[in-house]
Design goal:
Layout: H1 2-9, H2 13-30, H3 32-36, H4 40-60, H5 66-72, H6 78-84, H7 98-104, H8 111-124, H9 128-139, E1 148-149, E2 152-153, H10 167-184
Antiparallel strand pairs: 1-2
Length: 185
């Protein structure tokens, strides 16, 4: 509630993300047992949502991409609304449909999926450790750091296994799809 009171007292993109993401992090950390009962694609998707909102906050706070990042992630501007309404970025069903699972697990092999891979693998995932450290500090929730193993998002268990595929595999898939699209022309 403190973060929301701070936002109400002094509204800004940064205070909005801190309030929003403090709520998200608290809910995320308090529902671990429920998350572990979900199917693997739902667990993957919840990790994706978490790191994307933390990254958006990092953009607004200037941790990533400077002024351009602040503009792109400003919740008052249309770019955030457009992004969250793209089905390949954020599925509309729960539980996830078979098509949603293909999207979340990066097995759809579409041009839209390439945009998702670019955002996640190139811009966000290489910066997860500093993003999670920063979020653990401002949220006062150091246990958030247990949700990363070797820089990969996971749910902490006795046997944590990162779900994320290797960047090299994604790059190969990207070029194969691009080659396929160009070969058709």
């Amino acid at each position: 509630a403190r973060a929301w009171i701070e936002y109400i007292a002094k509204p800004s993109p940064q205070s909005w993300y801190r309030a929003h993401n403090t709520s998200i992090v608290a809910g995320y950390l308090s529902r671990l047992s429920d998350a572990l009962g979900e199917h693997r694609p739902e667990q993957v998707f919840m990790n994706v949502v978490l790191y994307r909102v933390l990254y958006a906050q990092g953009l607004v706070e200037g941790i990533e991409m400077g002024k351009l990042g602040r503009i792109l992630a400003d919740p008052d501007l249309p770019s955030v609304d457009v992004l969250v309404h793209l089905p390949d970025f954020y599925p509309r069903h729960y539980p996830l449909s078979a098509e949603d699972v293909r999207d979340v697990m990066h097995k759809a092999h579409t041009l839209e999926e390439l945009a998702v891979i670019l955002l996640d693998d190139v811009f966000i995932i290489p910066h997860l450790t500093p993003l999670y450290k920063h979020a653990a500090e401002w949220s006062g929730r150091p246990e958030l750091l247990t949700y990363l193993v070797r820089g990969e998002p996971v749910y902490p268990t006795r046997d944590p296994r990162p779900w994320h595929q290797l960047l090299l595999r994604r790059v190969i898939v990207f070029f194969l799809i691009l080659w396929q699209k160009l070969a058709r022309k």
